[in-house]
Known about the structure:
Helix content of chain A: 40-55%
Oligomer: heterodimer
Strand content of chain A: under 5%
Strand order of the largest sheet of chain B: 1-3-2-8-10-9-16-17-13-11-12
Radius of gyration of chain A: 16 Å
Distance between the termini of chain A: 40 Å
Number of strands of chain A: 0
Structural class of chain B: alpha+beta
Structural class of chain A: mainly alpha
Number of strands of chain B: 17
Largest sheet of chain B: 11 strands, mixed
Mean pLDDT of chain B: 97
Number of helices of chain A: 2
CATH architecture of chain B: Alpha-Beta Complex
CATH class of chain B: Alpha Beta
Strand content of chain B: 15-25%
Number of helices of chain B: 14
Shape of chain A: elongated
Largest sheet of chain A: none
Shape of chain B: globular
Helix content of chain B: 25-40%
Low-confidence stretches of chain B: none
Amino acid sequence: MSKADVERLAALLGLPIEPESRAAVAEMLTGLLTAARMLEEFPLPDDAEPAPIFRP
Amino acid sequence: MSALGEDALALEIAGAVASRRVSARAVVAAAIERIGKRDAALNCFTAVLRDTALGEAERIDRLIAAGGDAGPLAGVPFAVKNLFDVAGVTTLAGSRIYRERPPAERDAAAVAALRRAGAVLVGCLNMDEYAFGFTTENTHYGPTHNPHDPTRIAGGSSGGSAAAVAAGLVPLSLGSDTNGSIRVPASLCGVFGLKPTYGRVSRAGVVLFAGSLDHVGPFARSVRDLAVAFDALQGPDAADPVCAERPAEPCAGALERGIADLRIGIADDHFARLAEPAALEAVGRVARALGASRRVVFPEAHRARFAAMLITSSEGAHAHLDNLKRRAGDFDPRTRDRFRAGALVPASHYLHAQRFRAWFKERVREIFRDVDVVLTPTTPFPAPRIGAPPTTIVAGVEVPMRGHLGVFTQPWSFIGLPAISAPIADSGPLPLGVQLVAAPFMEESLFRVVARLEKDGVVAAPVASARA
Lengths: 56, 468
């Protein structure tokens, strides 16, 4: 995750991030994406639905 | 110390006030005086409600003088993390941005519940901005200092709530817990802290951090005080969409029931690694006192923590996205870039974390069919210094100093299980907590075990000034 990646992703969301903060955000996002990768290495059964339940 | 000094417990105060041995006004005035003398050094409070508190105390005294019942917490001073709405006070949630908001029109449900029980609100307490942190090193309002060693953090995000009770400024407080924000500061400050089952206590009137993980709960210096406060707080509330419809199940009457029928285990694997020896030894002391030796493994607990991080970051960022776009410069630099990173997490990662949550909940539910209460360290080490470096070495591994504080609390709040952090007695110069966890809505089991530990002197929460 580079500063340029952060700039592009943030633009998609309309989120301005000043250049001097992009490295810090990139480092933190890298940590979150590593957590996501560690999580997704574990196979979930197809019937595992997201935890929050909507009751009309 | 007299029975109504800084070391007076909530129920000692309530008993003395109800029997008119002391007035609620005198108790509340003494608490406000203590705050005035000591809080400049501790920085627990962001607001002290002197006039309304004294007025409320006088109302309680009049009620009792007229023969009325002022409630189980009559005249007990309490304070709340400043993300609870308090009528007439602006709810800061640790931020500069919310300082511009008008005062709250009514009390949060939990604040109102304690007031109905006779407790008197004396102020609002410091926290990490928007509850995103484990340290209460708040840039806008300053760090809260640990009463056991003011060079150290109080923990967070409910740092002011834990420190105010530890210092004897108030005997009771409220905080919130998304990943450990009640249990971590309770451990580092040496007080009892309860994170109830998700949905057990209403969050109406509380600024949410990550709504699918947010809980509120009490801090106290005795198990009975904690139970009486919890009993006043629990119960259904239509104003909180996740509050359980289940009726209240009071716990204070069960404290003497004993633990003969409870199966107690020691969490192994994830919960026995990456902690300092003192934290693991504290669990060992509690286990020996309870005669517990069975070790229990919760599969994929480390991944539960990763999933909790993803959900917290995504939901927290979404809650503040508009302000992140418009006025990022007004955020605490300690939280701003973490919120921004959370905003950039793809939705598929968030949803996968929520699916993992459902899977993990079922696995843990199966384990709790064979065990009633599980022991773990609350935190992997005692309070770090304020402004400590970003990483530390634990068991030969470099870990984030601040984020690692939640390593043992996050897997439980992730699936909403009730948990108490209880301070180990005679822990040395700094406090440390042991965490007790039970199946959903089984707070009573936790209270019975912690009551036994307190009675046997294994856990205790003396006021900080009495330790030295």
